[in-house]
Amino acid sequence: MALCIYCPSEGPFHKEHVLPANLGGFKNAEPLLNCICQNCNNRTLSSLDSYFVESGPQAMFRCLLGIKGRAKKGPHSPYEYGPRGEPAIKLRARPKGADFECLYCIDEIRDGKFVGRMLRQVVVKDKEGQWHPIYVSERVRHIGSLRGLIESEVDGPPTDIQAFDDEDSEGWLFELLKKEYAGNFTSRQMPAHETENPPIGDMVVGPEYFRAIAKIAFHYYLLQDNSVGGDEREFSGIRDFILKGGDADRFVTSDLPLQKGACFGDPCHLFGAGRNGQSVGAWVMFSAMPDGDNPQRYYVNIGKDPGHIIRLRSNAWAHRYRYYSAGEGEKNNYDGEIVPVPAKLVRMPRS
Ligand SMILES: [Zn+2]
Predict the structure, then answer these.
(1) In the chain, what are the domain boundaries?
(2) Which pTM was predicted?
């Protein structure tokens, strides 16, 4: 009788997808069966998934690819709300000819490159001469909300305000500013797309992010290696970390990214796992873009190799979760497909 690997429950079991379902549906994806009980999934594990897809680079990636996930709601914009209680992503770049930075979002890929678009905003100069770009969402249509926004960012009355809005909004932002800050602001038209490959803003992620990475890597390994069950005592450390948190550095470390464009021609996630008789580990890389600089690659220390006494032959697996291009996607019912890649692309774990 199979038991849940996280608790001794006899089920019912949850059908676990290695990659969170909100990152899309993939052809050839096999779920982990009879491994994780519904209780553990609903209580803890599924919330790690939602944290993961709404934080960090994945949040941006989902917006770019328009991945809707199971809920079929559009992904929310991480530039507007901030993923999961974290501050909104601030992507700053300097418009041509300006002596201050403005806020951008990335919502388009053109010829394999990110294209930034300016957000509606006010850029406010404080009494020390520092500029503060402040995003103004569609909901800020009242002078009180706008004043509150500015005051939360800048001490004292602003000495200058540059306001950016597009033609379509019929100038409501400028009208608001006229009432309150007349004579102290300049209205500007938002430029069309002009900033290619803008710097990716600092993204803050919480500890759940690394637990989610550990979970994805561990479950990926369990799916590949049929000779382990996941409940071995060698894996009790990582199971505890996934379930309850703890010292993330012990389980998840970052590694140098692969070389630019090393192994893909489409947006993808790359997973690999292996055992060498001494230890078991996995490499994961999320949200890689073709031709872009590869994202951070993480090494996940899964545990000691449970087969170390018998000296099992070393073994390794690697897969690319490749997103379909627009034309391909229409022909299929999936967002992408899983393709095996040579495991040597993904080095064996350190022992
Ligand atoms: Zn359980």
Answers:
(1) 90-196, 206-345
(2) 0.79
